[in-house]
## 1
Amino acid sequence: MNLSDDTETEQTEKETTNNLFIGDTGELALDARRVLVQLLSGPSLDGQRHTKLWPVLLRDENIVRQRLADLFLDLVIDRDLQVAFTRQADTGDLDAPRLLRRASLTFIDSILILFLREQLTKADSYSERAVVSRDDIIENLNIYDRAGNTDKAGFTKRIDASIEKIKKYNILQKIRASDNRFEVSPALKLLFSAEEILTLTKLYQRMLTGELQNESPVNSDGDDE
């Protein structure tokens, strides 16, 4: 076989290496495709939980960014926290379709997120993991219950429903061998800016001092990231 034949064979092998199934026209290797699927299915790719995918993401970051950009999505990576997720790209005036769904946060959801964000800050100051229990959450959120509310069980049920919702987004991750203790995902630091947290904090401080009524839910849209 001559040199040109060798070159042609190598090129053919390269073109078929990533063919994983009949009719596959994709270009990415299997592990890179797994990274892309995890990012798209969300809510995040966590280096602590996805130990095999994290190094692949760092290796193939450029091509993953390109694939996401084709879908009008942006890739957010925090190497220190080892967390990555997708969000809608800032397309300006371009009428771009939205791939990510919108999630509506109720009043209980938003004060739960605020509480969890505060726990992350405290844990960081001691270089520890942020761990909370269901009892911790209920105790801290109960201060926002309406004065005179006699349905305490109903308010607790709403808190439990919010916990389940936040667990679905992997912001709260159940600790093994414990039904009521959770670790707060570091991804929460990236999902809400310091300005958003400050706004929520001021709002709920006004509620606690009686300046605002907290009978109505506070709705806040956020991508399922």
## 2
Amino acid sequence: MNPATGTGKYEQLLERCRGLEPVPTAVAHPCEESAFAGAIEAGVKGLIVPILVGPAAKIQEMATKAGVDLARVRVVDAPHSHASATKAVELVRKGEAELLMKGSLHTDELLSAVVAKETGLRTGRRISHVFIMDVPTYHKVLIVTDAAINIAPSLEDKVDICQNAIDLAVSLGLAKPKVAILAAVETVTSKMPATIDAAALCKMADRKQITGGALDGPLAFDNAISKEAARVKGITSEVAGDPDILLVPDLEAGNMLAKQLSFLANADSAGLVLGARVPIILTSRADSVRSRIASCAVAMLAAHARRQQRVPA
């Protein structure tokens, strides 16, 4: 993928994956049509080697209905969704899978297995979610974080959320991702704690507590996205008008932003959970197969980047 271009971002993402070895992926409970089809198609496209974890009879029923031959696909039997999540995480811990993918179970079921103290996939990092968004009206891929996991993140949580997103952007080919830290205004005021956090994060980056990216904030959404809006407000910044990452103040703001981009701007999106031992492909049960494929492609690139250079826990 060439994140600097504005057309064909989805196709460029798949093109970047060509020639790379498909990554073994534990798919937890793929017992719904879109979840099953997404995993199988990602396998056909050479992005992943799906390991289907769930009720074997139900998975076979899905395959028969879809006309898919499972002769060369590994199926690991698990009686129900909770057991599927636990078993899929176990496959990752054993080194049999390098990615974890959510099927048709609830997100909290999968993440409960991921964060389990003795048997999960936690690291020293805070776990966070990113939407990788192809917005037709924006000139490159946008990463929005965190819009799905951390409800009201503390400053320390935001450090990990930011670092997770920077590390992902680097794995997608960006040398120094630009991070816009969003708030309602672009000035620092004690009346808006998000502006205080934004200013602190920028200084923490100066002190190398956050590395690999260029940070600026607080920035309101208009002057984060538009160079002209930033110019009118008198903001001089390498980030304003050209961010790769939008770091939101809390989950509510992030969730609304991501869904507005999807439903008002017709953005395509991929979803990943970061900060665990492996990237986790976390899609909605309502997501299209196209969205699931895009998520697998991003996760594949992240997994290959980890092979080359281990991300610090």
